[in-house]
Amino acid sequence: MHIGLVGLGKMGGNMRERLRRGGVEVTGYDPNPAVTDVPDLPALMAAVPAPRLIWIMVPSGKVTDSVVTDLLEVMDEGDLLIDGGNSRFVDDARHAEQAAAKGVRYADCGVSGGIWGLDNGYGLMAGGEKADIEFAAPVFDALRPEGPRAEGFVHAGPIGAGHYAKMVHNGIEYAQMQALAEGYELLAARSDLIHDVTGVFEAWQRGTVVRSWLLDLLVKALKEDPGLDDIEGFVEDSGEGRWTVQEALDHAVPMPAISASIFARFVSRQEDSPSMKAVAALRKQFGGHAVRSA
């Protein structure tokens, strides 16, 4: 299979490489001439055989809107456009309508795995018509972790379902990181009693009910910077957490833990705190997100 990939940043660039390792031919386009395979979108269309599968991996919001519009100007009837970025699920209906007006098929896919996905594989949550998801199956199989498909991929439902599932995933992620971070702050506060905070977390990595990849990443961050002295406790939120809470409000679903984790990030922008340093360190570890140096 030969596909086009638009957006070759931290995620997109690694995805291009994993797809190629998995036997999928990829022609990538990015405005950065240092990473792009072709000079522009018309050249991308010329390189990929029809019916084309074009996957976009760009920031959500206005950037995605612009890329979708520009791609639909050069794509042909019968092509399939997949948005693999972190778009809000309500945007998918609008983009699908735009695509349908040009005879272009549309699907969405939530992607999790961060900068580690190149070697470990990505968790994939797809939304769209069954035939379109089946058409893209070789791409999903190359990107997901090795093993049974159900352990790294789901066709979650119709258009928008993939991004909705990824939104909820990220809301849960917020709460899990916050719990680890608050535990770190409490352990660090009792330096008179706890002499090896990193060792405590390391001891939890096997055999305990709180073992997880996020815990592993926190141990890695603490080994690199035991007191997290090089990180400012300022934490951004990328949108999905807010959208999750908004959905909870709209559907009267109680979400005290996830909601509290969002508000904790707002607190981090007002004062430095050990727990927010831990959250910032975790985001850097799994996603390569920028941190503010202390």
TrEMBL record:
Stored Pfam families: 6PGD, NAD_binding_2
Keyword Secreted appears in the UniProt entry: no
Recorded superkingdom: Bacteria
Entry EC number(s): 1.1.1.343, 1.1.1.44
InterPro entries, sorted: 6-PGluconate_DH-like_C_sf (IPR008927), 6DGDH_YqeC (IPR004849), 6PGD_dom2 (IPR013328), 6PGDH_C (IPR006114), 6PGDH_NADP-bd (IPR006115), 6PGdom_BS (IPR006184), NAD(P)-bd_dom_sf (IPR036291), Pgluconate_DH (IPR006183)
Active site as annotated: K166
Gene3D superfamilies xref list: N-(1-d-carboxylethyl)-l-norvaline Dehydrogenase, domain 2, NAD(P)-binding Rossmann-like Domain
GO MF, one example: phosphogluconate dehydrogenase (decarboxylating) activity
KW Transport (keyword) present: no
Protein keywords: Gluconate utilization, Oxidoreductase
NCBIfam families (UniProt xref): gnd_rel, PRK09599.1
Family per record: Belongs to the 6-phosphogluconate dehydrogenase family.
The protein's name in its UniProt record: 6-phosphogluconate dehydrogenase
